[in-house]
Design brief:
0% helix, single chain, mainly beta
């Protein structure tokens, strides 16, 4: 067992230029960082700039050598990362109600907030009516946000009192 961190040899390049990195070389073997780019990575090449609205930017630098033709001009636009939320709120009582239906396309954003003014607790369920035993429980003022892994099914809510209120925002991919 090591007694202190100084007993661990540095993890740098081995004694010869072609040797792999090794933490097991004795401390007295000189180890040096390779010259050139940081972490021995190849130099960064310029990439064509892409805008989701205008496509490729013709004034962007041309990529460096060794890049297969056509691969340097592919722009990536992922509509999943853009949300245009629809907001609303609804009074919730002691009977389960459907507040957001399953979308015909993919939902990419969902936020729920217990906007009750008292001590009402909101229970949320996905795909089936909510009950007091639903897995998602929102205390007054509490928020839940789904923006990476977003439930796609119907959203149902119920309160533990007749005066509950829930605010919501959701978005789907057009």
């Amino acid at each position: 067992m090591l007694k202190n961190p100084r007993d661990v040899p540095p993890v740098l390049q081995g004694a010869g230029p072609a040797e792999p990195l090794s933490p097991w070389l004795p401390v007295n073997v000189p180890q040096v960082l390779p010259s050139g780019h940081p972490h021995n990575l190849p130099p960064r090449r310029e990439q064509a700039r892409f805008s989701p609205f205008t496509g490729l930017d013709p004034s962007a630098p041309v990529p460096g050598p060794g890049v297969p033709a056509g691969l340097d001009t592919i722009g990536i636009y992922d509509p999943h990362h853009y949300a245009d939320p629809i907001e609303g709120f609804i009074a919730v009582g002691t009977a389960s109600i459907l507040i957001i239906s399953q979308p015909p396309n993919r939902r990419n954003f969902l936020a729920l907030r217990n906007s009750s003014t008292g001590t009402e607790v909101i229970f949320v369920a996905f795909g089936s009516p909510a009950s007091a035993s639903s897995w998602l429980r929102l205390e007054p003022g509490q928020i839940v946000l789904f923006d990476v892994v977003v439930p796609q099914s119907d959203v149902w809510v119920i309160a533990n009192a007749a005066t509950g209120q829930v605010s919501f925002a959701h978005s789907t991919i057009a």
